Amino acid sequence: MPVPAERAEAEAIVQEFKPLFESETIEKIGQNLKYDAIVLKNYGVELGGPYWDTMLAHYLWEPDLRHNMNFLAETYLQYAPVKIEELIGKKGVNQGNMRDVPLEQIKEYAAEDADITIQLRDFLAPKLNDNQLEKLFREVETPLVKVLADVEYAGVRINPHFLMEYSGVLAEKIVALEEKVLKQAGFTFNIASPKQVGEALFDQMKIPYPGKKMKSGQYSTDEEILSELALTHPICADILAHRGLMKLKSTYVDALPTMINPKTGRVHSQFNQTIAATGRLSSQNPNLQNIPIRTIEGREVRKAFIPRDADHVLLSADYSQIELRLIAEISGDEAMLDAFQKGLDIHTATAAGVYGVPLDQVTSDQRRAAKTVNFSIIYGAGATNLSNQLGIKRAEAKELIENYFKQYSGLKKYMTDIVEFARTNGYVETLLGRRRKLRDIDSRNGMMRSMAERIAINTPIQGTAADLIKVAMINIREALIAGNFQSKMILQVHDELVFDVQKDELERLKPIIFDKMTTAIPNLKVPILVEMGVGENWLEAH
DNA sequence: GCACTCACG
DNA sequence: ACGTACGTGAGTGCG
Questions:
Q1: Would the pLDDT of A110 be above 80?
Q2: Closest residue by Cα to the C1' atom of nucleotide B2?
Q3: Residues A237-289 pLDDT 10s
């Protein structure tokens, strides 16, 4: 029976099923249960008891594929289900409502949906078992569904007035830059069009194209090229500045206020559990995992993220250097473990080793280079790329890497061993046994093979960091419930958790969050460090 | 709908 | 002599 639009009527129907949904013994099988959990939350019903999500199961088994039900049904059941568009039309403003669809059609659709879901469970359950993924499924991904449902439901408060005022400031700066650019050019073009910018600079103004790369016959005008040209051609600096402000204004400053839910007055981003093949979460509508922080103008946006009311503050807790700590842990490299155990700044320690100077004599340039090398290692990059990143000769980059591996010989061994493991087994895995298949690891195509090798190196690191914070989130949710806290987890940004904390609870909650985050994976050799900050907005808290 | 660009970890 | 450094999402232009 369709649930009617009328609130009281709908509630009455949902109440009938409440004991079923909240039962701690009856198993619920579904595709994307986070969605259902949130629908039920809206009616005051908490998804309870054992539940089994086919989307999550497929994500763990085939993290690089897609996980929607139509794909799964067609791929594994050789069955094409009725598409929802056939009932309510394509996505968009003109999309209809399920309530207007004839009951006969809804019945078919709903029954088919349920039938496919249980068939998929029967198909997928052995896959988890065969790949030792059951524990990760049962103890991490499944409980995380309720954590994410809570986070999405809680949402985050945004100050629209602050952003609208800032929008005006940006608009003025953008107009000024636009006039400045066009005046320098001496003719009119659309600065927001990379195509027109390329033609303006390299055809009309005859600036020599620094021939980096041509994609589809079009000049590239990306940050790398324009910032190089900016040294000799000020117009390029202004185009870059214009682009930066446009991005800031359209993607964040103007967009965020429109995303406020009128019923709650808050922004409810979705946290996707089955997008990133490494095990990370992703965020959309809006993406709250890429809010600016690196530039002065960008950071302003974070001031718009505020506590729910005057009785709350924001608390941010983030893992320090988590991926480097985990590569030290996983590789077992003695020197890097030692540096972390001594509490050293890892980039400074790396520079000291690579350049053979005492810790207190490392220059800022040496530290910066060492930092770049540390990250390039995580990504599995080679000398060519490192030389590009640092703007040095390839031979110098090669020497830098050789010195690096002299210092951290365990890392070198890890990198060769993990690629070898991938060749032998066809997959790599994280500390908690999350797996990623690498079908191209033996490819005759060198580019594809290299890509697979970099993935083999990076995925256990990035994926273990994802495992760690997921476990922490689950344990923190349990602690919040057990301690009867009113404070809420409201954001996850890969190595950071943000909480809307009731002021009275702050001092009681801080050590709990710290403890759950640092001990999510027990008995590590490397110390795990968490930094916490509190403030009246996200920028202050960070 | 794709390419480009750029925001984050 | 190189070749996209790993993982994402969103806005814009343009065909």
A1: yes
A2: A216
A3: 999 999 999 999 999 999 999 999 999 999 999 999 999 999 999 999 999 99
Based on the domain organization, do A331 and A309 belong to the same domain? no
Same domain, yes or no: A395 and A518: no
User: pLDDT > 70: what percent of chain A?
Assistant: 98
How long is the CA A268 to C1' B7 vector, in angstroms? 19
State which residue has its Cα closest to the C1' atom of C2.
Answer: A384
The more confidently predicted of residues A331 and A98 is A331
Regarding whether A333 and A431 lie in a shared domain, the answer is yes
Find the nucleotide nearest A290 (Cα to C1′): B8
pLDDT band at A87 (very low <50, low <70, confident <90, very high): confident
Phi and psi at residue A319, to the nearest 5°: -70, 135
Could you tell me if A511 and A524 lie in one domain? yes
- Report yes or no on whether pTM surpasses 0.85: yes
The answer to whether residues A424 and A367 belong to one domain is: yes
In a domain, A413, yes or no: yes
Q: Is residue A37 part of a domain?
A: yes
Nucleotide nearest A269 (Cα, C1'): C9
Residue span of the structural domain in which A386 resides: 323-459
CA of A252 to C1' of C7 (A): 21
Are A424 and A444 in a shared domain?
yes
Q: Which amino acid is at A312?
A: H
Strand C within 7 Å of which CB atoms in A 204-223? 213
Number of domains in chain A: 4
> Are A333 and A430 found together in one domain?
yes
Taking the C1' atom of every nucleotide in all shown strands and the CA of A375, the nearest one is: C5
Q: Which nucleotide is nearest to A323 (CA to C1')?
A: B9
Three-state SS for A302? helix
Helix, strand, coil percentages, rounded to 5, for chain A: 60, 10, 30
Computed over every residue of chain A, the mean pLDDT equals 93
Q: Are residues A225 and A274 in the same domain?
A: no
Q: Among candidates A118, A452, A58, A431, which has minimal Cα distance to A274?
A: A58
Using the 8-state DSSP alphabet, how is residue A130 labeled?
H
pLDDT per residue over A192-219, tens digit each?
888 889 889 998 999 998 876 666 678 8
> What is d(CA A376, CA A385) in angstroms, rounded to the nearest whole number?
8
Q: Which residues contact A174 (CB under 8 A, 6 or more apart)?
A: A242, A245, A246, A249
